[in-house]
Amino acid sequence: MEKDKTYYKQLIARYLDDECTAEELEEVLDYIGKDEANRLMLEQMRAAHEQSFSRELPLEENEWSERVRLELLKRTGAGIVVPFYKRRFARVAAAIILVLVSAAAYYYLNDGSRSVAPAVASENKNENIIPGGNKATLTLADGSVIDLNEAENGDVALQGNAKVIKIEGQLSYATSGGQDNGVAYNTVTTPRGGQYVIVLADGSKVWLNAASSLKFPTTFKNAARQVELTGEGYFEIAKSVLPGGKKQPFHVNIKSATGNGGIIEVLGTHFNIMAYDEEAAINTTLLEGSVKVNMPDKTVFLTPGQQAHITKSDKRTEVLTGVDIETVVAWKNGAFWFDNLDVKAIMRQIARWYDVNIVYEAGLPETGLSGKIERKKNIGQLLEILETTHKVQFNIKGKNIIVSPYKES
Q1: Are residues 285 and 380 in the same domain?
Q2: How far apart are CA 40 and CA 18, in angstroms?
């Protein structure tokens, strides 16, 4: 028999009374995550429940709000990194964390004996390590450098017959109709803690992650459009046709400290390239269209949902299928999304985005962690969430984050 709205109202009531089994709890979260109306129903029932509950035991919110927040994270796994076998649950729960936060008071009061993960230790309580943002420099064809953080919105340069325009974290190249002085190359570079968007002269759009760079011509006049990437970038390639009607291909040359990372040949398509020097592999992941990955020893073709995984140590290239696309492009969408990653892989992402140094103590767990966390959180919030896994804990010393195995307080 199909489960109707009455059934789910009864199930949510059991949930608010903390009487759900693990299976019922997951069913509630699945239901709430499917539709905005379902989330609204939960919120309305929660408000009524909380009002009834508060009549019996009034409280001042500021006395327990922080402990309640951490308790909710621990009880639901919402929006936190959790062991791999709980990944599906965490993804559903993360979608409704804002709705559930206000219900945390009930959890805490109903079971005040539960321990709460310790706050991240810091030798400097005033340390202000903030998330990254729209930061980059633009190197022009003559070698001069423009700090895009300081440049005003509007025209920032004229390169050949291309006008360079900055608008709130995005740099666009538009043909100005001026004198054609040949092909000029520009480079946009993001620091650690930076990101930027570039709209190329052909309309193609590139999102640059932290500690990355893109070198490109200000106009595309050759038989093939060619750019050069270091670090990580997400590409949405516009279709382009040469005189005579032939398609103009788009090539991305991947550069890394270990040598040539390959050439990506694309037509109209969306894809992500991750090629940081400190990572053990170069990954090209296709979301839409088709690409060809050319390596010195091998050429592979990708279809949507596949990833070319190139191991740097042995230059081995393999095609992975069924890749979780959402985790790959989460950075572009404002989130960390860890998919069974070890602690050090997670911390490398954090180091690039928050511009911090990571120090490891011996004995760190090798268990993979998974989950989704917003990149806009300050460093203390993010590390507190990681500590709720009871796998690791952190100590902040200036711009250094010391990672050690979790110890029960």
Answers
A1: no
A2: 19
End-to-end C-alpha distance for the chain, whole angstroms? 49
Side-chain-side CA neighbours of 148 within 13 Å: the count stands at 30
- Helix, strand, coil shares of the chain as percentages rounded to 5? 30, 35, 35
- The pLDDT tens digits of the residues spanning 118-138 come to 567 666 543 568 999 999 999
Whichever domain contains 297, its CATH number is: 2.60.120.1440
359, 89 in Cβ contact below 8 A? Answer: no
Contact present, 365 and 387 (Cβ < 8 Å): no
Which strands make up the sheet holding 392-397, listed edge to edge?
Answer: 121-122, 392-397, 400-405, 357-360
Question: Within this chain, do residues 97 and 141 fall inside the same structural domain, yes or no?
Answer: no
Instruction: Tell me how far CA of residue 382 lies from CA of 130, 298, 376, in angstroms.
Output: 11, 40, 9
pTM of full prediction above 0.85? no
Which residue segment(s) compose the domain that 184 sits in? Answer: 133-328
Do 356 and 390 lie in one domain? The reply is yes
Residue 335 within a domain = no
Q: Taking CA 256 as the corner, what is the angle to CA 251 and CA 260, rounded to the nearest 5 degrees? A: 55
Which region holds residue 108: left if phi is over 0, alpha if psi is between -120 and 50, else beta?
Answer: alpha
Question: pLDDT of 281-338, one tens digit each?
Answer: 999 999 999 999 998 778 999 999 999 999 988 888 999 998 999 999 999 999 999 8
Residues 6+ apart with CB under 8 A from 133: 169, 193, 194, 195
Positive or negative, the Cα torsion across 255, 261, 265, 268?
negative
Q: Name residue, tokens 């309580």.
A: 125
